[in-house]
Each structure stands twice: as C-alpha cells, then as structure tokens.
C-alpha cells in the first residue's frame, strides 16, 4: 500500500511554494497576473478606439481611407500574432529611437508595460474593426435614415443612434476579443515582460515543480475568464434591455 503519511507533507510543500510571502512564489504569480490584466485592459481599450475608427473608415471613409483600413486589417489578421509582437516590439521601438536621433533627441527606454499595451492594442484594433463594422451593418437602416431625416450630424448620429444600437450586436465579438487579449499577454513572455506566464516559468524552473505552477497559472487564467464572462453577461443583459431574447426571436 502507498504510504499516506507523505500526503500532508506534500500538501504542506505545495502551500509553501504558493504562499504569497518568502519563500513562496504566490506573490510572484499574483504580480504577474496583475501585469497581464493591466496590459489586457490597456490593449483592449486601445483596440476599441482603433476598431471604431477603422470600422467608420471602412464604411463611410473615402476610397483611400477604406483601402488603408482594408490593408491594415488584412495584414494584421494574416500574420501570426507572435511574429507581429516580435516585429513591433523590437523593430517598432528601434524605429522610434532612430526617428528621435534624426530629430536631434536622445534615445529613450520604452516601458515594457507601454510597449506591451501598444503592440497588443495594434493587433486587437484589426479584429475590433471587423467586429464593429459588422455590428454597425446589423443596425436596421431605417434608424440611420430617420436620424439623417432629422438633420443629425455624423457625430451626433454616432453618439445617439449608431453606438447604442450596435452594442448588442458587437458584445459577443468584443467579449471574445477581451478573452483573447488576456491570453495574448502570455506571448509577451518571449520579449521578457514579467506577466503571468513568465513569472510561472521562472517559478517552475527554480523549484522544478512544473506541474504545480503551471496548473496554478491555468487556474488563474480560468478564474479570469469566468469572472469576465460574468461581467460581460451583465453588460449584455443591460444592452439588450427591451429587446427580445434569442428564444423569443422566432
């Protein structure tokens, strides 16, 4: 029979390894999670701004604007995200410093947090463009015609008609983009940013408890997803108030 006396000792070792204070690594994992959420929030917000501009550019912009928006979304969605991250993180920061040097300024050290937000936000913007463009096209055209008949300016029509009306159609896609943003932060480990995945890898490599730490990281990602789904569900319920549910639509 297996010696069950080792179970309490094993559990004690696991709790020690994951405790938030030395000699545990729990604090490192939580710090990495906070960094991941900071990047995800910043990138998602930046992606929404780019996506809104891109969607309006594709739908209502000049031919040049539509072509530029189309090239942007096509390239970003075609190239693997890891390649884009490496390209934008290294080549982008080097390009900025070269431009500063040509203008007579000194080179700057770009914060890893800022660089991570900008890189992932640039990627998120391409997908958000298509999500929001589809949501705008789903708005009944009669609402747009009525707004124009009342003489609303494009900005006022966007604020009062387009954005509120497209929200229920955009939320499922935007929710997926948020979850993608939280997981894409793990790709920043390849450039040495201390998010959850890198902290987990360092803890596992030091203690050799690979299963324990990667399971802990998986649980943290899962909890983030479950909490996000809860928040998104509440927002979707609020956005669809007064609208028939899917079951009633038939």
TrEMBL record:
Residue ranges constituting the ABC transmembrane type-1 domain according to the UniProt record: 33-232
UniProt entry tagged with the keyword RNA-binding: no
Pfam families from the UniProt entry: BPD_transp_1 (PF00528)
Membrane-spanning parts: 37-56, 68-90, 110-128, 161-181, 209-232
Keywords in alphabetical order: Cell inner membrane, Cell membrane, Membrane, Transmembrane, Transmembrane helix, Transport
Keyword Cell membrane: yes
CDD domains: TM_PBP2
Superkingdom assignment: Bacteria
PROSITE patterns attached to this UniProt entry: ABC_TM1
Major subcellular site: membrane
Location in or out of the cell: Cell inner membrane; Cell membrane
InterPro entries cross-referenced by the UniProt entry: AA_ABC_transptr_permease_3TM (IPR010065), ABC_transp_permease_HisMQ (IPR051613), MetI-like (IPR000515), MetI-like_sf (IPR035906)
Family: Belongs to the binding-protein-dependent transport system permease family. HisMQ subfamily.
Name of the protein in question: Polar amino acid transport system permease protein
Species this protein is from: Phyllobacterium ifriqiyense
Upper taxonomic lineage: Bacteria, Pseudomonadati, Pseudomonadota, Alphaproteobacteria, Hyphomicrobiales
